[in-house]
Request: fold
Amino acid sequence: MKKVLIICGLLFSVMTFAQAQDGGRKMPSPEERAQKTTERLAEKLSLTEDQKTKVSAIYLEQANAMVKLREEKTGDREAMREAMMKSNEDAEAKVNALLNDDQKKTFAAWKVERQERMKKMGNGGPGRKKDK
Reply:
């Protein structure tokens, strides 16, 4: 009987510890995502204050659209992925329209660099296992 209680206690403590590990990760809010993206672009592209305000509004709208898509979860992952990609493309087109010629070149290079990083990370980013 003692062994059963000890084993149950160990299992309970292991399960509690494993759940505590996931607790540190949380998705940033749409506002945080928009702010972070705007800050990155402002640094890369030397945006004016007016451009920063407009870019922030574009990315906030896009981040809110992403949250809405995730909440809807229709079960069709491919459709959701397509909708998210479309949302990204629309936001990037709006941002591109705000930029001058030099900024547009830098923005295009930044997008290519970002795509390369995404390819390197593979399926879902660092820390996730790829299906083999």
Notes: The longest helix spans residues 49-72. The helical segments are 2-22, 30-45, 49-72, 77-98, 101-121. The mean pLDDT is 81.
